[in-house]
Amino acid sequence: MTENQLELLAPAGDMERLQAAVDFGADAVYLAGREFGMRTAPANFTPEELKQAVALAHQKGIKVYLTCNTIPRNEELERLPEFLREAQDTGVDAFIVADFGVLRLAKKYAPNVPVHISTQAGIANYETANAFYELGASRVVLAREMNLEEIAQLRAKTPKELEIEAFVHGAMCVSFSGRCLLSAYMTGRDANRGDCAQPCRWQYALMEQKRPGQYFPIEEDARGTYILNSKDMCMIEHIPELAKAGVTSLKIEGRAKSAYYVSVTTNAYRCAIDEFRRNPEKPVSPWIVEELNKISHRAYSTGFYLGGEPGQETATGGYVRDYEVIAICEGYEDGVARLSQRNRFFRGDVADVLEAGKPPYLLPLEELTDADGCPIESAPHATMTVFAKTSCPIAKGAILRKKRSSSDETNQHGT
């Protein structure tokens, strides 16, 4: 695989998010069954849903990687062989594993399925990558703590057949490669079994031993500080450097995120990769960079890739939410778009429209009617059908968004 042949790997927490990844340009998706995956928050996939998901993706030429990257306990191992056999029967294109025992069982009970080694394994050097290759891995997902120079060194000292996958966008973990015990200690929810409560995003202050109940902010702020709250990663402007370092697959974090998040991030990185393929010397288009500010996110950083620590977002534990989805286009005919409402919008609003593979465009919503053809001033009801008259054709599946007003922000921060 050459530098300008990059796989775009998108997250899929359920069928809706899988469809979003498919529609907006993923080359591959990663997802989980109901067990053995590192994210229990999303719905994930039953055996029958997994079979359907693989069939849907393969129809579009998209690969499906199944996460089996928890660290299972003894009592769970008895269920693992059947889980692996059933997954092999569905036609999944790879397992993502972190545990040596799971790797061994995968080779024994599902020998036809390639194995990728999860970032949970903490691969940060070429000797470890080579060891996993010799054990039968076809791909390694690198530790997020590696920089570009280290990745290039690893690529130079590993077999060219070994694929290299790296995260390029999404949430970062304060602990090394996600090996965190804080959630289990504070809540009883084990992050290494997919059940992280994200206590690193909580608000903390100090208390001196002889002054019980007297709290001291770590910074001069009455709210305390979010000292463990890692910034989000965003490498949209550095795809050429990732390719030059030898990365094979660009991975978007977010199986617990919304279908909207999957749509926007997949579309942005799809367009950025395609621009890179057309002209490796040209900087990514500004509209692509701006798209990633239209999803819920923490302050962005480039992670460890460019050297140094990415830093923490100490001012708040929450997200930046500047845009909200107001509708999904379900069809367009004779100058009228049929919309399914997602958040309240009004006649006179200007929608920011996202279609797959294209820059967004602005669309004034000047004439609205309800399902009975009666003029309406607003669309207040969830998933209600709204017809919008417009001379601009809108593609089915297009996402209509609206920039939040200052009053929206006030209400958001006040709740």
Secondary-structure map with pairings?
Layout: E1 7-11, H1 15-23, E2 28-32, H2 47-59, E3 63-68, H3 74-77, H4 80-90, E4 94-97, H5 100-109, E5 115-117, H6 126-134, E6 137-141, H7 148-156, E7 163-170, H8 182-187, E8 206-207, E9 215-216, E10 232-234, H9 239-245, E11 249-252, H10 259-278, H11 286-291, E12 300-301, E13 323-333, E14 336-341, E15 345-346, E16 350-354, E17 361-364, E18 368-369, E19 378-379, E20 385-389, E21 399-403, H12 406-414
Parallel strand pairs: 1-2, 1-11, 2-3, 3-4, 4-5, 5-6, 6-7, 7-11, 10-12
Antiparallel strand pairs: 7-10, 8-9, 13-14, 13-21, 14-20, 15-19, 16-17, 16-21, 18-20
Helix pairs in contact: 1-2, 1-10, 2-4, 4-5, 7-9
Could you give a short description of this structure?
The protein has 415 residues and is α/β, with parallel strands linked by helices. The protein has two domains: 7-175 and 230-301, Alpha-Beta Barrel (TIM Barrel), CATH 3.20.20; 323-414, Elongation Factor Tu (Ef-tu), domain 3, CATH 2.40.30.10.
